[in-house]
Write a structure and sequence with these properties.
alpha+beta, N-carbamoyl-L-amino-acid hydrolase, metal-binding, 22% strand, Peptidase_M20, metal ion binding, Aminopeptidase, 2 domains, Bact_exopeptidase_dim_dom, 36% helix, 13 helices
Length: 418
């Protein structure tokens, strides 16, 4: 029996309530240009977590927090012996992040719970809304580390020992803000996981599509590279005698861009963080630390990009006389989402009559790790001009409502499919 037969086409989430919740959460860590800054495990992240937990309790959910700080809000089903259907995303942001990245998926999940409460409808299996810790990887690398711990990709000790640039660990900061939980990380069976998210790219809006049915997720490799040369005075030191660490880094930055272009149109190659020492206008840089982010939906191509980067770093080091430190700090292979979950999303879209297209996610998401332990899929909605990880990131209320309506029907279909 379809969800349309159960709910009718007139049943929908409360779009105004969802929007109001998004705007209320956006007040926490609000930035001057309309975005948010809620770095993982900061006091602002704690405030966002506290508000989410309170809203979930108000909706009748029970709360558990695991040892890596993931928050689970559970709504009982008719048969609580069945594995739960999860939905969620993350509450942390980039330093100059937007109001929708991650938080939309968490609050869309909460709105599903609220809507089921309004309907006095109890699903067969329990459902849970989850807020994953440190998805962004902006403060603690790598990204998605807590969902990775949950899925068994990383062990708990690894996750808790991740350090920010000030040397503070995730474990220390979880304890400080009161979210070092005691629920088991793994060991329970899950029914499925759905994640609603803004696309973070321009395709849906450009093609005037309301929903992206996400079938796959690109693989990623993250690197940390350090070039060490010799600090020296910018005036008396002849050009021929310099060991300029920034020169070496700049050549690798150019190589990274070239590698991305050589594997177009699907490759993405980015240097997003750089630290220069001593960072003085009249001192030749003696040390430069920077990061590289590679993405591609084909694992073989991703490996080829990796080889080219390693060759470029070795060549530049030899040409410039610099010492190098090179580490791949994170890798996950491309992901194909579960056919049954994808069809649940597709079926919901068909019932609702939304324009749509299949998509491969260009960004990494917690769903990419959850796919290793439970059937998983994602639902994309457009964002204006494809802009994300930016304070001006925006999604129209009707887009947010549409994605949440799809989430509602997909989750209920799975929760009642016993």
């Amino acid at each position: 029996m379809s969800t349309e037969a159960k709910f009718g086409t007139n049943v929908a989430i409360n779009g105004s309530r969802l929007w109001d919740s998004l705007m209320e959460m956006a007040k926490i860590g609000a930035t001057p240009k309309g975005g948010v800054c809620r770095l993982a495990l900061t006091d602002l992240d704690k405030q966002g977590r506290d508000l989410f937990v309170q809203w979930c309790r108000d909706a009748g959910c029970t709360i558990t927090v695991d040892a890596i700080g993931n928050i689970f809000a559970r709504r009982p089903g008719r048969n609580n012996a069945l594995p739960p259907i999860l939905m969620g995303s993350h509450l942390d942001s980039q330093p100059t992040g937007g109001k929708f990245d991650g938080v939309y998926g968490v609050l869309a999940g909460l709105e599903v719970v609220r809507t089921l409460n309004d309907l006095n409808y109890q699903t067969e299996a329990p459902i849970e809304v989850v807020a994953w810790t440190n998805e962004e990887g902006s403060r603690f690398a790598p990204a998605m580390v807590a969902s990775g711990v949950f899925a068994g990709t990383f062990d708990l000790e690894y996750g808790l020992s991740r350090k920010d640039l000030d040397g503070k660990t995730m474990g220390e900061e979880l304890a400080r803000i009161g979210y070092a939980g005691d629920a088991p990380i793994r060991g329970r069976e899950l029914g499925a996981y759905f994640e609603a998210h803004i696309e973070q790219g321009p395709i849906l809006e450009a093609e005037d599509k309301t929903i992206g049915v996400v079938t796959d997720c690109q693989g990623q490799r993250w690197y940390e590279i350090t070039f060490t040369g010799q600090e020296a005075h910018a005036g008396p030191t002849p050009m021929s005698r310099r060991r300029d660490a920034l020169l070496g880094a700049a050549r690798v930055v150019e190589a990274v861009n070239r590698i991305g272009l050589e594997h177009a149109p699907y490759a993405c190659a980015t240097v997003g963080l750089m630290q220069i020492h001593p960072n003085s206008r009249n001192v030749i840089p003696g040390r430069v630390f920077f990061t590289v982010d590679f993405r591609h939906p084909d694992d073989a191509v991703l490996a080829e990009m990796d080889a080219k980067l390693r060759d470029a770093v070795a060549r530049v080091a030899q040409e410039t006389g610099l010492e190098t430190e090179f580490e791949q700090i994170w890798y996950y292979a491309p992901v194909k989402f579960d056919a049954g979950c994808v069809e649940a999303v597709r079926g919901a879209v068909a019932e609702l009559g939304y324009s749509n297209r299949d998509m491969v996610s260009g960004a990494g998401h917690d769903a990419c790790y959850l796919a290793r332990v439970t059937p998983t899929s994602m639902i994309f909605i457009p964002c204006v001009d494809g802009i994300s990880h930016n304070e001006i990131e925006h999604a129209h209320p009707e887009w947010c409502e549409a994605g949440c309506n799809v989430l509602l029907r997909a989750v209920v279909a799975k929760a009642d499919a016993t």
